Amino acid sequence: MKPSIYGLTQEKLQNWLVENGEKRFRADQVWDWLYQKRVKSFSEMKNVNKKTIELLEEHYQIQSLTETIKQESQDGTIKFLFELPDGNHIETVLMRFDYGLSVCVTTQVGCNIGCSFCASGILSKNRDLTSGEIVEQIMNVQHHLDERGDSERVSHIVVMGIGEPFDNYDHTMDFLRVVNDQKGLSIGARHITVSTSGIVPKMYDFADENIQINLALSLHAPNNKLRTDIMKINRAYPIEQLMDAVDYYLEKTNRRITFEYILLHDVNDQKEHALELVKLLKDKRHLSYVNLIPYNPVEDHPYDRSSKQNILTFYETLLENNINCGVRVEQGSDIDAACGQLRSKQLSKKSKAKSKA
Ligand code: SAH
Ligand code: SF4
């Protein structure tokens, strides 16, 4: 199967064109058609000569995702379900905030990390997405906005859809380079956030990348016992190792890090947990932000959302101890726009249909 043209960074496209007897500057032309004019076929690239277009058509696809469902929520959130060329499905969510339009992308089909609260973990990993398939999610959303005709642009990206981006590190990095490139979509690095469950060696690599992209760490518990209970990855990379990697990141980049913390009713949402979290983060609180996430209950998982009172107490305990924090605002809950829900619902409908047959 031909790979997606969107997977090539500017440099990789230049090198590929030169290797194939073409001039380096053709890459500028092709990128202009892809990311500024945003055409959907190679043949529309009018100032690119015929031979180059044939070469591109022979080796690359320009549209490898097929949109199968698009659901719009009352708050303007749009959830897209795409089919990949091999028949797998992925989801992408567009959210509207007062600061702009943010897209949440998927990096893998399923996820092998298997956190006990997450819908994506139920479906173990089928495969990694290519860098082109990740970029195409953004392009499809942007094409949708272009067709609406009100000149809106995707301004922010969160890598928080299905999958563990640091378990698909190289493809995720190429994706980030393409969308961040000034000649590409030119989405500012400070407007992009990558979330990881804490694959420690890759956190060191990410710190060394020399890129201003924000990092979020899914911490979710203040001690190893609790974290291992809900995130089995904690056995491989326990909290001490995570915090060493965080310190390295902070020292290397001097950038703030976000700690994500899902509040699960009666599991990790007590005042004592908040106090333990304060202890864990106090030496780096000037560069830390804790994002408290109200849990979206997932069918077949035993957890509930914390009570409003527990969320408030947790939040206030952090604030009283000078830990920067906020509670994540929910988007698109009427269309199941939370992590992994649409895809897992689609799959379970399919498998029910199959078992009836
Ligand atoms: N694999 C990466 C990125 C994808 S998940 C990671 O785990 O960080 C993005 C965020 O959504 C993570 O913080 C994850 O813990 C959280 N999440 C997963 N399932 C959720 C649910 N049911 N409700 C709320 N947040 C959830
Ligand atoms: Fe994978 Fe992230 Fe879900 Fe854990 S929370 S199973 S790492 S997608």
UniProtKB/TrEMBL annotation:
Catalysed reactions listed for this entry: adenosine(37) in tRNA + 2 reduced [2Fe-2S]-[ferredoxin] + 2 S-adenosyl-L-methionine = 2-methyladenosine(37) in tRNA + 5'-deoxyadenosine + L-methionine + 2 oxidized [2Fe-2S]-[ferredoxin] + S-adenosyl-L-homocysteine; adenosine(2503) in 23S rRNA + 2 reduced [2Fe-2S]-[ferredoxin] + 2 S-adenosyl-L-methionine = 2-methyladenosine(2503) in 23S rRNA + 5'-deoxyadenosine + L-methionine + 2 oxidized [2Fe-2S]-[ferredoxin] + S-adenosyl-L-homocysteine
Cofactor(s) listed: [4Fe-4S] cluster
Binding site for S-adenosyl-L-methionine: G163, E164, S195, S218, L219, H220, N296
Keywords: 4Fe-4S, Cytoplasm, Disulfide bond, Iron, Iron-sulfur, Metal-binding, Methyltransferase, rRNA processing, S-adenosyl-L-methionine, Transferase, tRNA processing
Primary subcellular site in the record, as a coarse category: cytoplasm
Any Gene Ontology CC annotation: cytoplasm
Pfam families: Radical_SAM (PF04055), RlmN_N (PF21016)
Residue stretches making up the Radical SAM core domain: 97-328
PROSITE patterns assigned to the protein according to its UniProt record, in alphabetical order: RADICAL_SAM (PS51918)
First-level EC class: transferase
BP GO annotations: rRNA base methylation; tRNA methylation
Signal peptide location: none
Gene3D superfamilies named among the record's database cross-references: 1.10.150.530, Aldolase class I
UniProt miscellaneous comment: Reaction proceeds by a ping-pong mechanism involving intermediate methylation of a conserved cysteine residue.
Family: Belongs to the radical SAM superfamily. RlmN family.
Functional summary from the UniProt entry: Specifically methylates position 2 of adenine 2503 in 23S rRNA and position 2 of adenine 37 in tRNAs.
Protein name stated in the entry: Probable dual-specificity RNA methyltransferase RlmN
Organism lineage: Bacteria, Bacillati, Bacillota, Bacilli, Bacillales
